[in-house]
TrEMBL record:
It comes from Thiorhodococcus drewsii AZ1. The modification N6-(pyridoxal phosphate)lysine is found at K677. This is Alpha-1,4 glucan phosphorylase. Allosteric enzyme that catalyzes the rate-limiting step in glycogen catabolism, the phosphorolytic cleavage of glycogen to produce glucose-1-phosphate, and plays a central role in maintaining cellular and organismal glucose homeostasis. One of its GO terms (molecular function) is pyridoxal phosphate binding.
Length: 831
């Protein structure tokens, strides 16, 4: 980075260009921010100082639109979507905001003229890792689309001080490092110390009579903690609308501190402060299985309580009386994590705002909608009644009361069916009594949706069958989508440019169906050549990046075969591994065979307590070490594990993939969204009929998709009949030899026991039917290799995959929510 140039005098009208979009204004803004915010001049500025100055310069330009949006929304009294989510994974903001402001080129030139390395500045930003995987990233894509579609909205969540851990690989094992993402400051957030709400825990409830002699309930808490708002502006693409991501930080309540201080217990007061702050300290790093920890329940209530109190405040500030609360707001629950909001709104309406049960319930059940994201039983949240009662005694009473009203209705509808009543109850009574959060979410919401067509069907016919029998109209499908701004324009500028040139416009960025215009050119050899060049360039970039980080060198001519997602048995990274071992054995047996070179690339984190997932990571790295160092293989196949897969690092992966692995056991992956990101960037999919794969295949055409494996229906049939994985092991000689090779100790320096827990589980239980789908998977992979030999044909399929991805824009998903579920309208803010 050359910092040698001295600052040129900029003869501009400061006032006029304070937030101007011209190159001159950007340069001036940057130098001002470097000086007045970072307190630096260019000669001594660190790369981080430069990043901060660039971020503030960008933020200044967003704030103007933000203020305008807030004013307009207020005067319009516009209906507002509140998206409640325990996780948001926005990814680095700078590049995305420049794209949405439409000033990438100007900013690049401005940086160049100041002698700065723009890519290095962008790369300085820390990942805001406030989520685990698909669920958190979906929330971020939805925020981008809500703003782009000009729908007033607020994303509510937790400002975790430590987000998802950073993953490093040591001796092949995952090692977790704490993610101190706020260490160097966060230029995107604006603290709102005055937007602060008390959150109550513990204690007891008591009855009393109010002035009118009515019997009321009062909650006397044992602990009060404050939630303080931190706002991040979310700018739409090419529009003036800026919505709000409002995250809550826990702080000790001042009144409590004071009490301790007055009686002289200074240390006690400080201790209380530390304890209060633990609530927003760290994200639970479990993707699907629930941790079931007390602190987790406290976190959920914490952000939900702050958010509902904030909405009530906004209601009073804009429209007024609470009667129209469900007209002013719609609250979308992102999974069950925020479903306590239902009980909390009831409590606030009744205990704090004097409403009777019926009025409060009428508002509550009209305001909430709930999205289910998983059918996996281990991910369905329940809380023991005793813990619930200890932490939230008033809410338990309310849950009981909701349940009483609800079960009375069920009994009337299904006379004498007490078994059904037992299944539908908000309280599980078998064994330790537990509160079923999913049942609470369904009962308290007017709309419930799944996240892909297949998933939504399974929601209706399996998970919530009883509820669907009772309320058929309550259930919907909204297939997930992802934002093309982040995953195409930001991640893959080369492809984006090529698409715009080919289509003659960049309208596809806001209207992804326009990608269809590519189809007319799918046979055009000129486009083929450029398409191929773009892909090869991305592969070279990724290869260099991976070489730097892992030491493994990939051949850009090889098929880049990528599986990047959380490590989970149901996602079947080990099925992928069995294919790799098969390729290895084939090459060892006939070294001269004409195999298409492949680079197998994995990325993904394992929950720190998930032993089997961590063992899978170890096995990937162990197989990689042997194959990559086998001189006989000579680089024909290579295996690499990309450490610390997250939004930021993922941006290197999507553009470079040729093949996208979407190989979960059918019926287990609710939707998947990585599948969409890869396909949008021209990768072909090898996948099962699971989640959104089904719809991706429908859209791109079955001839452009590598399908294998059992359908969800076949899976449940096999399970009903009794599944015996050892029969596959005994019957299929190649499968047996692949598993035996793992057990031989070849990948573990002679240790024959290391991977036994994994291989034994496959042969004896195999809950995700890896062995049942093995043969079909290998055969399908052979088709992939053959198809790749025909470059023209492959490139054509790649172009068609991109051309037909329109449906999977999160803009389409948000339009469906707005139209069918939320009934919200755009409120355009002029530029
Ligand atoms: C699902 O596993 C889906 C995302 C977003 C995940 C994945 O298939 O794409 O949600 N579910 O809808 C989840 O995290 C807690 O459940």
């Amino acid at each position: 980075m050359s910092m040698a140039q001295s600052p040129e005098p900029l003869d501009v009208d400061r006032e006029r260009t304070r937030t101007g979009m011209s190159k001159t204004a950007l340069k001036q803004g940057f130098l001002d921010n470097l000086f007045y915010i970072q307190g630096r001049f260019r000669e001594v500025a660190t790369p981080h100082d430069l990043y901060m100055a660039a971020a503030y310069t960008t933020r200044d330009r967003i704030l103007e639109r933000w203020i305008k949006s807030a004013q307009r929304y207020k005067t319009n009294q516009s209906r507002t979507v509140c998206y409640l989510s325990a996780e948001f994974l926005p990814g680095p903001h700078l590049a995305n905001n420049l794209v949405n402001l439409g000033i990438v080129e100007t900013a690049t030139e401005a940086a160049h003229e100041l002698g700065l390395d723009f890519d290095a500045i962008i790369a300085e930003e820390a990942e805001p890792g406030l989520g685990n995987g698909g669920l958190g990233r979906l929330a971020a894509c939805f925020m981008d689309s809500l703003s782009t579609l000009q729908i007033p909205s607020i994303g509510y969540g937790i400002r975790y001080e430590f987000g998802i851990f950073d993953q490093t690989i040591e001796d092949g094992w995952q090692v977790e490092k704490s993610d101190n993402w706020l260490r160097n400051g966060n230029p995107w957030e604006i603290p709102r110390p005055k937007i602060r709400f008390p959150v109550l825990y513990g204690g007891y409830t008591e009855q009393y009579r109010d002035h009118d002699g009515r019997s009321r309930t009062r909650w006397v808490p044992a602990q009060i903690i404050d939630g303080v708002a931190y706002d991040t502006p979310i700018l739409g693409y090419g529009v003036g609308n800026v919505n709000l991501l409002r995250l809550w930080k826990a702080e000790a309540s001042e009144s409590f501190d004071f009490q301790a201080f007055n009686v002289g217990d200074y240390y006690g007061a400080v201790h209380a402060k530390i304890e209060a702050e633990t609530i927003s300290k760290v994200l639970y790093p479990n993707d699907e299985p629930e941790a079931g920890k007390e602190l987790r329940l406290k976190q959920q209530f914490f952000f939900v309580s702050c958010s509902i109190q904030d909405m009530i405040r906004l209601q009073f500030n804009t429209v007024g009386p609470l009667d129209s609360f469900a007209e002013k707001f719609v609250i979308q629950l992102n999974d069950t994590h925020p479903s306590l909001a239902i009980a909390e709104l009831m409590r606030l309406l009744m205990d704090e705002h004097d409403m009777d049960w019926d009025r409060a319930w009428d508002i509550t059940h009209r305001v909430f909608c709930y999205t289910n994201h998983t059918l996996l039983p281990e991910a369905l949240e329940t809380w023991s009644v005793s813990l619930f009662e200890r932490l939230l005694p008033r809410h338990l009473e309310i849950v009981y009361e909701i349940n009483r009203h609800f079960l009375d209705e069920v009994r009337v509808h299904f006379l004498g069916d007490e078994d059904r009543v037992r299944r539908m109850s908000l309280i599980a009574e078998d064994g330790e009594r537990r509160v079923r959060m999913a049942n609470l979410a369904v009962v308290g919401s007017r709309a419930v949706n799944g996240v892909a067509a297949l998933h939504s069907e399974l929601v209706k016919t399996t998970l919530f069958k009883d509820f669907h029998d009772f309320w058929p109209d309550r259930f919907h499908n909204v297939t997930n989508g992802v934002t093309p701004r982040r995953f195409m324009v930001v991640a893959n500028p080369r492809l984006s440019r090529l698409i715009s040139e080919t289509c003659g416009s960049d309208d596809w960025i806001r209207d992804l169906d326009r990608l269809r215009d590519l189809e007319a050119h799918a046979m055009d050899s000129g486009l083929h050549e450029r398409w191929h060049e773009v892909k090869i360039a991305a592969k070279r970039d990724l290869a260099a990046w991976l070489k730097h980080r892992t030491g493994v060198l990939l051949d850009p001519e090889a098929i880049f075969d990528v599986q990047a997602k959380r490590i989970h048995e149901y996602k079947r990274q080990h099925l992928n591994l069995l294919h790799i071992i098969r390729c290895y054995q084939r090459l060892k047996q006939s070294p001269n065979q004409d195999m298409v070179p492949r680079a197998f690339i994995f990325g993904g984190k394992a929950a720190p307590g998930y032993f089997m997932a961590k063992l899978i990571i170890k096995l990937i790295n162990a197989v990689a070490e042997v194959i990559n160092n086998d001189p006989q293989i000579n680089g024909f196949i290579r295996v690499v594990f990309m450490p610390d897969f997250n939004v930021k690092n993922g941006q290197h992966l999507y553009p470079a993939a040729n093949l996208s692995e979407q190989i979960s056991l059918a019926g287990k992956e609710a939707s998947g969204t990585g599948n969409m990101k890869f396909s949008m960037n021209g990768a072909l999919t090898i996948g099962t009929l699971d989640g959104a794969n089904v719809e991706i295949r429908e859209e791109v055409g079955k001839e452009n998709f590598f399908l294998f494996g059992m359908s969800a229906e076949e899976v449940s049939q096999r399970q009903r009949e009794g599944y015996h994985p050892w029969e596959h092991y005994a019957k299929d000689a190649e499968l047996k030899s692949d598993i035996d090779l793992i057990n031989s100790g070849l990948f573990s320096h002679g240790d024959t026991q290391l991977f036994r827990p994994l291989t034994d589980r496959l042969v004896n239980q195999d809950p995700f039917m890896v062995l049942a789908d093995y043969r079909a998977y290998i055969a399908c992979q052979d088709h992939v290799a053959e198809a790749y030999r025909d470059h023209r044909h492959w490139t054509r399929m790649s172009i068609l995959n991109v051309a037909r991805m329109g449906k999977f824009s999160s803009d389409r998903a948000i339009r469906e929510y707005a139209e069918h579920i939320w009934r919200t309208e755009p409120h355009p803010i002029d530029l």
